[in-house]
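ok trying this again, last paste got cut off
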Amino acid sequence: MARDRHNNEDYINPLRRLLVGVLVLFMFAVFLIWRIDSPRVERFRAAVIDRVVPSFDWAMAPVTGTVNLIADFQSYRRIAEQNRDLRRELQQMRAWREAALQLEQENAKLRDLNNVRLDPQITHVTGVVLADSGSPFRQSVLLNVGARDGILDGWPTMDGIGLVGRISGVGETTSRVILLTDTSSRIPVTIQPSGQRAVLAGDNTINPPIEFLEVPDAVRPGDRVISSGDGGLFPADLLVGRVALGNDRRLRVRLSADYERLEFLRVLRSQQAERISDTGALIAPVEPPVLPAAEPPIEVDPEEEATDG
């Protein structure tokens, strides 16, 4: 067996060398034919190409399809990248659109604040609403202005249209506003055109009721409600809302302020009522009655008295 394998190798090696030599000669001949610049050789090359190339269409079809597939895949990849970039830009445009809408709303609210006509003697500070109480038992919001801005307890606050509440609690940089809807809120109001005086009492609803009304029959739904200024709590003639008839047949106030979109509030620098610290000073001291001065006694001369006698 070892001898047979050795014999096979003796035949294969020369045959391999012969094939390699023939292949080299063939390639060299092809090179020479393709490099020789002669009309006959050129006609020979053209005849070979016309004879061989058309018959190789079936062999080139898979190659052409593969090349086209690779080109299409690259095109799809570019389209996918462009689509991803467009989605990212669309997301950014949506974010810019939301920002533009918010700025437009804030601008409109600020214009509303500027359009409110107030007493020229009353100045104001505009603050941004930071947060609300989030409690059904307490209606209040937090502003980003405080003691450093000169805010004091009791000052009224308004949005772009009507009265919102009053300052109740002041920090260094923030302050809390008790809304008119809070149960602890009580403000004196005037109902126009009847001129009736009443008290607007909060009850944690969006339409607080009217209490202590002198003549209820003189008030009609739709009448204008403004602050009366009684007690010096609020300045007079601040718009509060309009009278409405509730489901419980009670007269309520439809507030003019938009409580669902409280973003900016105007804090009015109102003059505070004088606080009485010394209750005894309310009663004037009783002064003693002033008696008329006694007349001096008349002195009589003794000689005149003897003469008269």
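PB: full thing came through this time. The helical segments are 2-35, 39-52, 57-115, 302-308.
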